[in-house]
Amino acid sequence: METEKVYFVESSEDYDDQHYGFAFSDEDLSPADIQNWKQDIAWKELKMELKEGEFADYLVNDLDIPLCSKRLKDLIVKHADNSDDFTWYPIIIQSASSWDQERYYYLKTNILLDNVIDLEKSDIEKGIVYVPYFIKERTRDIFRCTYDESYLFVSQALKDVITNNNITGIGFETWE
After folding, report:
1. pTM metric for this prediction
2. How would residue 50 be classed by pLDDT, with cut points 50, 70 and 90?
3. How much is the pLDDT for 30?
4. Domain layout of the chain by residue ranges
């Protein structure tokens, strides 16, 4: 089986010249409320507050969810081979320092991929995968996997599209 290099998404605070803000939600809202949202329940557009920084295309927040600008959302929809696997929930972000408001979109992946890690090639110790190798035929352009749902992974091709379009606030890492 051929393996593929994939990246996990993180914020890019360290390598951008801009200081990007952090979005805060209402105190009554927990990350689990949003991450476990069911598609059959009507979505009420949330409001969050941006503190201490500028709007970025990928916005870090206290709910630990992927918040994408319309520009980033449009790139993902156009270039990801599995864009039908996502639901986009709108969220209004209000700047704490001005009257500026921006609409962002929570990218919710509806499908978790299973059996995408080549366990024979990956570095594993006591059942914990430290350096995963992903099976090329089983990955998608953007995905989460059942092994660890906390990471949002992207393919080399989608990473290149995002990087080449100067998307702000987003970074990519691998385990290698």
Report:
1. 0.88
2. very high
3. 78
4. 3-173
